[in-house]
Amino acid sequence: MHALGAVETLRSFRARELSPVEVLDALLDRIHADDGAALGGRAMDGEGSANAVNAVVQVLEGSRAEALDAERRYARGEYDETLGRGSSALLGLPVATKEKHGIAGETLSQGFFELRDDRAPADHPVIERIRAAGGIVHARTASPEFSCATVTHSKLWGVTRNPWNRELSPGGSSGGAGAALAAGFTPLATASDIAGSTRIPAAFCGVVGYKAPYGRIPGLPPLSADWYRGDGPMARSVADTALLTNVLSGIHPVDHGTVPGHGPLPTEYGDAAQWLVGRRIALAVRLGDYPVHPDVERAVRETTARLVAAGAVVEEFELPWTSAAVRDLTMGHFGHILAPAMRQLTEDMTEVAAYTQRFIDDASTAGRSMSLVDTLAGEARLQADLAAAMAGYDALLAPVNAVDGLRADGDYLDGLEATGPAGGPVRLEHYWQGHMTVPFNVSNRCPVLSVPVGFAGNGLPVGLQIVGHPYAEESVFRAGAAIEAIQPWPLVAA
């Protein structure tokens, strides 16, 4: 049962082939056996087992009572006739949520050891919507401090490891979410993305992650006003990701940046590959000069060859970007918004991770070197470049990560030793240059879906970004479903 998808599980509940209690118990057993998490509702503390995935930081003790209630509702036929709609859209489905998505009365540390006893005053909007749709929050997942790294480890929760290769990281910052999905601890998970924090772990863990257009999924003020950011879903299939996207999306009174959409995304795709026939798709393997690892490039090119064989027209080009310029521009942005917020939060702390302090220092330095108006001008140029490149195409494809993986316990404070396209070593000044995600946070009205497209030699999956035109959400899901149909991926790590 741990490998079942969300839509498949909902159908089984309706047919009375499975019960919510059976599914929840199977997932809790798997968490207990492979993760090292306590099952009594206690947050984890310390390093944990060196062999554990260490993705789950808390199991919610009330989840079984919720599963029993859902079981009774199914027995009474108390669910919407249309699957995935209304108050029964997720009825009885377990959902793992990123710890930063606060639950009223539960701890809310955001990975900081010194905030381990803080409590959330209210449910985060995504928690509120999951519960209103009948979903069961059974587990909470790890992230680095303040979600500010592309690896997932902290003094509070220890090192989160990739189920595909436990010496390597699931990525970050939603690394616990990606690892939990890949390990079969949950069919659905919540994540967040301000520079790639959903797509990076989705790619490294071989699952699907969605960065919705800015404003489609509500966040919490004041930082929800940062136009780079967004909360969102992760799952193991395109349909399951669409299911959770539908539940989370829409105007919310807490977040005045939320916007309406064009209706629910489909959760059934029929002859998905047929969508590809005649579609014009742009391919940007390096987004300028990102040093893409040969294994990553190979997986991306093999997938695009299958798209062409299925009837799509794929044309390759390069954008006039450099990873260093993108780094400087986006760090400048964070120097005016995120770094001051982090400095304010941590100013009285005596123990802060080295990667957290490095992020604050780097972003603050970049913010002093350019005004907010300068960063806006740079963002406008990048957005114009992307719009020109995508003109006449249905979607743009690019790798998620330029690198094939990161060490599970790595800090990468002194940059990153990468492998270039020719197989030789490449030195990157900042580890952010190993990920090709943040340009699409700058162009944050564009929907971006990350899907698996193969494996690197180290055993980690490779992810592909599908970028759509502003707010054209269905297009990236159609493209993702087509790739899933012509090139199915494993559901969980072996």
From TrEMBL:
Boundaries of every Amidase domain copy: 67-476
Pfam entry (one): Amidase
GO molecular function per UniProt: catalytic activity
Protein family: Belongs to the amidase family.
UniProt name for this protein: Amidase
Native species: Kocuria coralli
